[in-house]
Amino acid sequence: MLIAVCGVLGLLVGSFLNVVVARVPVDRSVVSPPSACPRCDTPIAPRDNVPVVSWLLLRGRARCCGEPVSVRYPLVEAGTAVAFALVGWWLGWVAVLPAFLFLAAISIALALIDIDTFRLPYVIVARSYPVAAVLLGAASLAARDTSSVVRMLAGGAVLWLFYRLLHAVYPQGMGYGDVRLAGVLGMYLGWLGWSELVTGAFFAFLVGGLAGIAIMVVGRGSLKTQIPYGPYMIVGAWLGAVWGADVAGAYLRAAGLA
User: Fold this and answer.
1) pLDDT digit string (tens) for 15-35?
2) Is-contact 204 232, C-beta < 8 A?
3) Whole-prediction pTM
4) Is the dihedral angle over the CA atoms 69, 36, 26, 130 positive or is it negative?
5) Which residues contact 69 (CB under 8 A, 6 or more apart)?
6) String of b and e for 31-62 (b: at least 16 CB within 10 Å)?
7) What is the DSSP secondary-structure string of 141-194?
8) C-alpha separations of 31 from 142, 155, 198 in Å
9) Which residues lie closer than 8 Å to 122 by C-beta, 6 or more apart?
10) What digits encode the pLDDT tens for the residues 186-238?
11) How would you class 192 by CB atoms within 10 Å of its CB: exposed for 0-12, middle for 13-18, buried for 19 or more?
12) Are 61 and 69 in contact (CB under 8 A)?
């Protein structure tokens, strides 16, 4: 039941994320005006705005003028539904579930925007700090676990500082939006534990490095090719969140430290 509820919620959120991804980079309101056809500016009727289903029924075209509608719209909606369902399956009925559903939503929005524009919008990242603090803090309060609040604050500060130092040493290597995002991801990873924080940071560089090598191997770039780093930070953080404790434990056992 929880997985199904999370999936349906993800479909609805995914529809909204399409608006966020399209409008936030060009400084447009995500609330008004209502969604309209980009070709003839006809408002989209509610029956044509049902996530995934409307796109399939209309065969990927606008009802008003036949303008092709990008397949990315239903993919984002379906992808968000899958992401929410997986988070529900991973965590179950726990107080921290809303916090990680929020993280899943901004992960998708920020990754897509960064891929499209090589930017991580301040308006999304900055507002994620108080939202994450409230949701994670409420989960800690529900569990009567003050130590997780301390780790949350320390994790955000540590990862932000680490990326800030990297940016100061080599500002061409990453944008300041990556520094801001590091603080948000550090809050989540720190809330989970120190192992998750360390492995999440490591996985970001590992995934980013492997992606860079792949780009060069297929001839799509070189060492100087600019790539959006935000998506790799996000993937690394999720890997650290889900498997960080297991990976850290295996490493310590292999090194004879545990």
Assistant:
1) 999 999 999 999 999 988 888
2) yes
3) 0.94
4) negative
5) 55, 58, 60, 61, 62
6) eeeeeebeeeeeebeeebeebbebbeeeeeeb
7) HHHT-HHHHHHHHHHHHHHHHHHHHHHHH-GGGS-HHHHHHHHHHHHHHHHH-H
8) 32, 33, 38
9) 177, 180
10) 999 999 999 999 999 999 999 998 988 888 888 776 666 778 999 999 999 99
11) buried
12) yes
d(CA 128, CA 221): 33
* CB contact at 8 A, 80 and 11: yes
For residue 41, give the 3-state DSSP assignment: coil
Element (H, E) at 208: helix 194-217
Place of tokens 């409307």: 54
DSSP string, 74-135: HHHHHHHHHHHHHHHHHH-S-TTHHHHHHHHHHHHHHHHHHHHHS---HHHHHHHHHHHHHH
Q: Which of 91, 78, 133, 84 is nearest to 241 (CA)?
A: 91
Nearest Cα to Cα of residue 245 among 196, 198, 200: 196
Here the tokens at position 142 are 């529900």
What amino acid occupies position 32? Answer: S
